[in-house]
Every structure is written in C-alpha cells, then in structure tokens.
Design a protein that fits this description.
Layout: E1 4-7, E2 13-18, E3 24-31, H1 45-52, H2 64-71, E4 75-80, E5 85-92, H3 96-108, H4 114-132, H5 135-147, H6 161-166, H7 169-179, E6 185-191, H8 195-206, E7 229-236, E8 241-248, H9 256-267, H10 286-292, E9 297-304, E10 311-319, H11 325-341, H12 346-363, H13 367-380, H14 385-394, H15 398-408, E11 414-422
Parallel strand pairs: 2-6, 7-11
Antiparallel strand pairs: 1-2, 3-5, 3-6, 4-5, 8-10, 8-11, 9-10
Length: 425
C-alpha cells in the first residue's frame, strides 16, 4: 500500500498509510526504548513508565485519555517489549486531532506526580505477582535468564520485584525524559485521511517538542554459549511444561528468512508480533503432528523472537496427562534432527509459504493490525521491515532451511527448562 514517510526538524519520523474510503484511523507512536535499555536496579522501569503515561500531564488530567477515547467509541492500549514501547488509539478518522494531542502531550509532558508513582508501584508489583502465579511466566523468565548471562535480555520487561519495590520517582522520571523524545520515536497513522492535511496537523502538534541528545548505543553483547544449559522447576500448576530456546542472530541478519521458514515447519507461523496473534494454534507442522496428534501434548508452539540483538528461537510444549518430560523432549529432539538431516519436501515448503502468505494478509486486516505491524517494524528497523522479511522468506530454498537448522538448532547453543507441575498443598 502507498506509504508516505517524512521527518520533522526535531527528529520525529512520520509514517502515513492512507486508506481511501476508510472511516477509522489508527494512530501509533513507537519509542526506541525497551527493557534492553535498563540496568540492574532499574528493571521494569520502562514498563512502569508506560503505566505513568496514562496518568496525565500537560493538557491531560488523570483519566482524560480513557474518557476521550471511550466517548468516541474507540480503543487504545500500550505495549512494552524488550526493544521498544508502543502506544495506540483507534478512533473515527474525523477525530485525528484527539489522538495527536494525546500522543504529543505524553511525549514530553507526563506529570509523574509522586502520589501517582506510589499508587502505580502497587499496580506493577501486583502485575508481577500475578504473573508469578502462571507457570508459563515462570518458565519464560527462567529460559531467558538461562540463555542470557550478560545481555539485558536476561530479564523480562516486567522487571524484578525487588527493583519495583525500591525504585524512586526521580530516576523513573529521568528515564522517561531521556527516552521519550521526538528524535527517539516514530509516529504512524493508518486509515482515512489526506496525507498533506495530516502532515499539517502533525506539525502543529509535534513540531514544538524539543529533541534530546540521542541515547548511547547498547554496549553489552552476549558471549557465545558453549554448552547446553538446563533448569528444572517444581511449582503448583495444571500440567508439566517444556521449553527449549536456541540462540539465533538479530532480526536484520541474512539467515533470519530461513529461520522464519524453519520455525513455520516446526511449529507454525504466528506473525512477527506474537502477542497480536491471539490464541490461534497452527496445526500443520511437525511438532503438532509428533506431540499433539500422538496425545503426548495438548499444545505446542514455536516462535522466532525477532529482536534488535541476537535472540532465541523457542519451542514450547504443554504435556498431556500421563506423558513424561523425558519422552516429550526425546520426541522434540527427533523432530529437530529431522529438519537438520534432510531438506523439507516441496509440498511441505509450499504449505509453509502458504501459511506465511495467509498470516501476512491477516496482519493487513484493519487499520489497527496494520498500525501494529508498521510500528513493530519501525521499532526493529524500518516501517516496511516485516514486509521485506516475509518477501525474502517466500524465496528461501529447502537447503537453506536445513543449513539454518544445522547452524543454530544445536545442543551446545540451547537452554532447556522443564516445569514439573505439583499439586497445591
């Protein structure tokens, strides 16, 4: 689709995708700040800042954002990831100025009232404690902690409870000022508008905002893993879980298209932004046939974590009652050995490409989905990153998929977490 790109004098990148005859508008702002930019003692600060930007400041009082969007029958939300943070509103296109005012105010004018900071401390700690009650979160946190010893991917965006309990208001506010600047952000509009008119309104709302000195580049890099790492967790839960993560290169690496096809063959493709996929479960893949169809597992999945820095390809399985972790891990190993040994047949490759195409069309369904895809792409590289990556994946040969499996899906580069479900005492 035609996409217009411009940059304001203060460094704000503007990405406009007009869709004629559409009465809706989705406005997104993506900031190049995530949990990878945190340091020990401040983990969870980026997610906490996200919460604070709904608490008012400048022209916005506490609760105003929710009231304004609800009155228009719209929807809004925000997401904190390891590499970026995103905010959005989807509203009637005629109300463009409402979304632009909200985003321009919270870009520089969030209040961080001390009483609200303390109130939100309770909220984020509660969110952390709620996550701790979920076996899947315990496995996820353990897996990233095992796989990354140096790089900040070691912790999840929600942070550690002890940091959330002690972090003061002023460091949190300084974290906001440092990263929430127009030259560290991109504004995306998708929907029914005229680009020339939209740019005029965008300049009025955002041009007065002053840039900050660009943040320093992250200097930490994860050393090569030279041996399998394993952990066993024993906690209350409804089922045993298995998670295996293999180190893979950063999203911009030339091998990533082959890894996308590889992950599709193994566990099905659910998009570059997994949290946008909902509960849809691909079934036409090797792990589903090997584990779910044989009643060893009730759920399986493979996801490629496309990130700014070298990351993980992760396979998960929820075990069926009576199945053993040893057995499921053995079957998973056999499936992985199969993709390492022999190129996939043409029919399987065609099916994988069809799944990639189908999901790409799904991601273009509606202004909100298009907005999140453009914003996530911009957070990783550029607005068209996802489109370019999937276009390359379409052309990947079976031999390249096999070679990627041989290079990356090796035991010495993997971390394994086994969750042993215990009954509540």
């Amino acid at each position: 689709m035609p996409t217009h790109v411009d940059t304001l004098d203060n460094g704000l990148k503007v990405i406009l995708r007009p869709i004629p005859d559409t009465k809706a508008l989705s406005t997104w702002v993506v900031y190049r700040i995530g949990s990878r930019n945190e340091v020990p003692g401040m983990t969870g600060s980026t997610h906490w800042v996200e919460h604070m930007l709904f608490k008012g400041g400048g022209k916005l009082a506490k609760g105003d954002i929710d009231k304004m969007i609800s009155r228009l029958g719209g929807k809004m939300n925000a997401f904190t990831d390891t590499d970026y943070t995103m905010y959005f509103e989807t509203i009637p296109a005629s109300e463009m100025d409402t979304a632009l005012m909200i985003e321009s105010e919270r870009m520089r004018n969030a209040a961080f009232d001390p009483k609200e900071v303390e109130a939100e401390r309770t909220v984020v700690i509660s969110e952390r404690e709620g996550a701790e009650n979920q076996p899947e979160f315990a496995v996820e946190e353990e897996l990233w902690g095992l796989a990354f010893h140096v790089h900040p991917y070691h912790w999840t965006p929600i942070g550690y409870k002890q940091d959330l309990a002690t972090l003061a208001r002023d460091p949190l506010y300084q974290h906001y000022l440092r990263y929430y600047a127009p030259n560290n952000a991109a504004l995306i509009l998708v929907g029914g508008f005229d680009p020339a008119v939209a740019m005029q309104h965008i300049r009025e709302a955002f041009a007065p905002l002053k840039p900050e000195a660009p943040p320093e580049a992250l200097r930490l890099s994860e050393p090569d893993q030279r041996g399998e790492r394993r952990a066993d967790l024993e906690r209350p839960g409804p089922a045993d879980l298995l998670a295996v993560g293999w180190h893979i290169p950063a999203a911009a690496h030339e091998d990533v298209p082959a890894l996308i096809v590889l992950s599709t063959l193994l566990g099905g493709w659910r998009g570059l932004v997994p949290f946008a996929a909902g509960d849809w479960q691909p079934r036409s893949n090797r792990l589903y046939r090997a584990l779910v169809d044989t009643k060893l597992a009730t759920d399986v999945g493979v996801r490629l974590e496309a990130k700014l820095d070298p990351s993980l390809l992760i396979a998960n399985a929820t075990l069926a009652g009576g199945a053993s972790l040893d057995r499921v891990e053995s079957v998973l190993d056999r499936v992985v050995e199969g993709v390492r040994k022999t190129p996939a047949p043409k029919a399987e490759m065609d099916r994988a490409r069809q799944q990639l195409r189908a999901w790409s069309r799904y991601e273009q369904d509606g202004v909100t989905f298009q907005g999140i895809l453009l914003a996530a792409g911009e957070g990783l590289s550029s607005w068209d990153f996802g489109e370019r990556l999937l276009a390359k994946a379409e052309k990947v040969r079976p031999e390249a998929v096999r070679d990627a499996a041989r290079t990356y899906l090796v035991d010495s580069h993997r971390s394994v977490v086994r969750f042993h479900a215990q009954e509540d005492a």
